Automatic annotation (TrEMBL):
InterPro entries recorded: ABATE (IPR010852), ABATE_dom_sf (IPR023286), Znf_CGNR (IPR021005)
Lineage: Bacteria, Bacillati, Actinomycetota, Actinomycetes, Kitasatosporales
Domain named Zinc finger CGNR: residues: 137-180
Organism from which the protein derives: Streptacidiphilus cavernicola
Transmembrane region(s): none
One Pfam family recorded for the sequence: ABATE
Name this protein carries in UniProt: CGNR zinc finger domain-containing protein
Protein origin, superkingdom: Bacteria
C-alpha cells in the first residue's frame, strides 16, 4: 500500500486519539486540559495555540465522529463521514518546511483550533486510505473485551488485534489453551501433536 510518511503520522495520531475514548479505553483518556496538552506534545502537533476547555470538548466531539469512520459498514458511509469532518473544519492546503522538516503538506487552516486541525489532518489521511481502496484496513480490535481501533498496515491485511500488547498475546494464549483442551479430550490429536 502506498501511503506517505505524513499520512502514516496522521493516522498514528488519530488512532492514539480514538483509543483515549471511554468506549475504547474503559475510561476517559483525555479527562482534562493537562491530558490534552500531553497529547499535543507527545505527537509534536504544530501550530497549536493556548488550549481551553472549549478545545477539550471539541476534540472529544471530533473523536466520536472519527470513531464512526472506523466502525462504518461501507466505504460510502466512511466517505460521507470523512467529507463532513473535513468540511466542518475548513481546509487550507499549503506547503511548509517548518521546524527543519522536509517540505510537506499541511491541510488545516493557519491558526485553526486544535479540533479542526486534527479533523482536517486525520480526515485527509483517511481520505487517502479510501482513495487507495484500503478502507477495510481501518479496524476495530477483535478481542471480545476490547473496543480499541487500529490501522492494519500488514502486507496481507491479516492483523486482528490492536497493539495494546495484551490483546494479541491474550488471544494467542486463549487459542493455545483451546487447542490443548481439544488435544486432551482427543488422545489421537495429542499423539499427532507430539509426533510433529
Ligand atoms: Zn508539519
Ligand atoms: Zn485490543
Amino acid at each position: 500500500m502506498l501511503i506517505t510518511h505524513d499520512t502514516q503520522c496522521a493516522l498514528d495520531v488519530l488512532v492514539d486519539l480514538l483509543n483515549t475514548a471511554p468506549e475504547a479505553a474503559g475510561q476517559e483518556g483525555l479527562p482534562d486540559l493537562a491530558a490534552l496538552r500531553d497529547f499535543v506534545v507527545r505527537h509534536e502537533i504544530s501550530e497549536v495555540g493556548t488550549l481551553g476547555t472549549d478545545d477539550l470538548d471539541a476534540v472529544r466531539r471530533v473523536r466520536t465522529q472519527f470513531r464512526a469512520v472506523f466502525l462504518a459498514r461501507s466505504t460510502q458511509a466512511a466517505a460521507e463521514l470523512v467529507n463532513t469532518l473535513v468540511a466542518q473544519a475548513g481546509s487550507t492546503p499549503r506547503l511548509t518546511d517548518h521546524d527543519g522538516h522536509d517540505w510537506h503538506m499541511h491541510f488545516f487552516a493557519p491558526c485553526a483550533a486544535l479540533a479542526d486541525h486534527l479533523a482536517v489532518e486525520a480526515g485527509m489521511a483517511l481520505a487517502f486510505i479510501v482513495v487507495a481502496g484500503e478502507r477495510e484496513r481501518l479496524r476495530r480490535c477483535e478481542a471480545p473485551d476490547c473496543a480499541r481501533v487500529f490501522v492494519d498496515l500488514s502486507r496481507n491485511r491479516s492483523r486482528r488485534y490492536c497493539d495494546s500488547r495484551t490483546c494479541g498475546n491474550r488471544m494467542h494464549v486463549a487459542a493455545y489453551r483451546a487447542r490443548q483442551r481439544t488435544a486432551a479430550e482427543s488422545p489421537d490429536a495429542l499423539t499427532e501433536a507430539a509426533a510433529r
